[in-house]
């Protein structure tokens, strides 16, 4: 099994050949005498030598990396030393294999022992050396990976510094120079984060990185126009709000990149030896780390709550319904009730859907209570054992949860599809806002702003419901950050229109509205794409599996049967 600290595909690929070679050595069965015995011993010798040579080359590279990176030098040299010693131990064990085989062959003409490779003491020694080698090589790889992480975090810090410099410029000349520098650093960060995202094994981390990169990419043009409006109209509060919002959102995206990159890399190395980046310990206080994880990694969805209840119910086949199981089942039902409020309290959920959800919730409660009663009755029997009554109660709960999932999916997708059908409303509202701003018609602008903000609220509700029914980590993350970006950037379209209303002849103010409107349309497009992806995923998961075997039409079967029957009878 691969070390759980290995979070990237590249590290896994680096370790896989070594794991394969070591598995071969550990599982080599030694033969009982004959020519094959000598052959096996020589093969083991060659493998042992090859492993040692490969390890020596590997740690030489590790030591070179250590020399170039003082912050990991001590830990890297220690890991390399352990790896070299383990590689040498494996080679020596393989060298002794031939002598052991010969001894076994000479005792009773092949009847004694099981071959050197099969002796218990040989096997135990090989397993110990193999574990030591894998552990030390893994440490070397993790330490080397911190160098890659360091480069990425340095690139992120450069962008952060450039953002601060952009925020403080007071004239166009300084701004053009600072923005050009910022653009070059953003290109480097985009390249490094793209490579890292592709390398990450964890689906949720990949999706989080993609969300952060998308915010940075889309925010750059808004940062440009909002900053230009601020420089042209420094007294304008609405233009400053536009700009400050973009700065804030970009910094949040970089914080998320930092979190994703750091997860499992610096902390896992820190567990072996204190690796430091920029002179700082990567470890954080438990409280701050826990808060950030709750913010970024919370998975409070209806899909997760129902799945937890279903898993707990399935377990009762083996555990029955003891006190701990009863508490877990009751807590799972309470969690479903709590999260259900996002559906039942939504102003956009139809009366029919709301009633169906509440009825199904009551049914789940009823069936779980029935399961608990059956379980308690079984516990009073000697000996307690599951029977048909328990199986019936379990199936009743699972049927209710399955119907609840279907109802929630229908409710969310119906709302989402209404948005997809109302695509023209987006463009109409944005055009109305721009036209009201250009006409300096504050009353009409306020009217359209209220309608637009109500529309934003509706799309946010849709995102929230989509996240509840999404069945994969990547779709849940996409829905979550879609909702966040809509909440943050949606109202900024109205703010940009307010600026245009104050300066209707300003070319840059008009351009700023266009850029923020484009961002809004992109976000709405993301929700529509997400709706399709979630719908397709649910359809695929609900599709009944095809029956195994070759599927042949009756006519084809008759043709083949007529052709093959004479041959069969002749045979």
UniProtKB/TrEMBL annotation:
The alphabetized UniProt keywords are:
Cytoplasm
Where does the protein end up? Cytoplasm
Record region (Disordered): 540-571
Q: Does the keyword Coiled coil apply?
A: no
Give the chief site where it resides. cytoplasm
Signal peptide limits: none
Q: Which Pfam families does UniProt cross-reference here?
A: Vinculin
Q: What's the domain of life for this entry?
A: Eukaryota
Task: Show the GO cellular component annotation of the record.
Answer: cell periphery; cytoplasm
Q: Which GO terms describe its biological process?
A: cell adhesion; Rho protein signal transduction
**MF GO annotations:** actin filament binding
Q: What's this protein's family per the entry?
A: Belongs to the vinculin/alpha-catenin family.
Query: What is the name of the protein in this document?
Result: Alpha-catulin
Q: Which organism is it from?
A: Scylla paramamosain
């Amino acid at each position: 099994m691969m070390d759980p600290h290995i979070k990237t595909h590249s590290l896994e690929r680096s370790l896989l050949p070594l794991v394969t070679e070591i598995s071969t050595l550990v599982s080599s069965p030694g033969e009982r005498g004959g020519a094959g015995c000598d052959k096996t011993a020589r093969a083991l010798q060659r493998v042992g030598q090859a492993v040692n040579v490969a390890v020596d080359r590997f740690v030489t590279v590790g030591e070179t990396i250590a020399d170039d990176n003082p912050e990991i030098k001590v830990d890297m040299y220690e890991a390399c030393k352990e790896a070299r010693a383990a590689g040498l131990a494996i080679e020596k064990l393989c060298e002794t294999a031939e002598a052991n085989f010969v001894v076994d062959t000479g005792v009773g003409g092949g009847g004694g022992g099981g071959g050197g490779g099969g002796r218990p003491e040989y096997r135990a020694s090989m397993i110990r050396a193999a574990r030591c080698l894998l552990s030390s090589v893994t440490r070397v790889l993790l330490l080397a990976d911190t160098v890659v992480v360091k480069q990425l975090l340095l690139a992120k810090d450069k962008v952060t510094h450039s953002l601060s410099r952009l925020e403080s410029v007071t004239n166009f000349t300084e701004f053009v120079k600072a923005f050009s520098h910022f653009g070059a650093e953003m290109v480097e960060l985009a390249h490094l984060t793209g490579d890292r995202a592709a390398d990450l094994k964890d689906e949720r981390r990949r999706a989080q990185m993609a969300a952060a990169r998308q915010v940075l990419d889309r925010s750059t043009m808004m940062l440009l126009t909002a900053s230009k409006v601020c420089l042209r109209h420094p007294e304008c509060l609405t233009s400053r709000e536009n700009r400050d919002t973009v700065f804030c959102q970009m910094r949040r995206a970089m914080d998320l990149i930092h979190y994703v990159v750091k997860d499992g890399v610096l902390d896992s190395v820190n567990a072996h030896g204190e690796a430091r980046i920029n002179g700082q310990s990567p470890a954080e206080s438990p409280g701050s780390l826990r808060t950030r994880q709750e913010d970024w990694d919370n998975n409070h969805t209806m899909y997760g709550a129902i799945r937890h209840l279903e898993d707990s119910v399935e377990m009762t086949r083996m555990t029955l319904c003891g006190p701990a199981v009863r508490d877990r089942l009751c807590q799972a039902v309470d969690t479903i009730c709590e999260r259900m409020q996002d559906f039942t309290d939504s102003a956009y959920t139809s009366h029919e859907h709301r009633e169906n959800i509440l009825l199904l919730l009551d049914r789940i409660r009823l069936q779980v209570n029935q399961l608990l009663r059956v379980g308690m009755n079984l516990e009073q029997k000697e000996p307690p054992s599951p029977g048909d009554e328990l199986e019936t109660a379990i199936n009743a709960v699972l049927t209710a949860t399955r119907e609840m999932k279907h109802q929630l999916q229908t409710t969310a997708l119906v709302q989402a599809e209404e948005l997809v059908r109302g695509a023209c409303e987006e463009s109409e509202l944005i055009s109305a806002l721009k036209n009201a701003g250009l006409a300096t018609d504050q009353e009409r602008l306020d009217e359209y702003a209220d309608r637009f903000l109500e529309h934003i609220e509706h799309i946010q509700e849709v995102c929230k419901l989509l996240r509840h029914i999404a069945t994969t980590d990547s779709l849940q993350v996409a829905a979550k950050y879609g909702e966040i970006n809509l909440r943050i950037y949606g109202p900024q379209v109205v703010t940009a229109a307010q600026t245009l209303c104050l300066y209707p002849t300003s070319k840059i103010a008009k351009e700023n509205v266009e850029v923020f409107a484009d961002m809004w349309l992109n976000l709405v497009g993301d929700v529509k794409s997400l709706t399709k992806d979630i719908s397709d995923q649910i359809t695929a998961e609900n599709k009944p599996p095809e029956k195994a075997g070759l599927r042949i039409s009756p006519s084809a079967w008759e043709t083949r049967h007529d052709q093959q029957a004479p041959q069969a009878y002749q045979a």
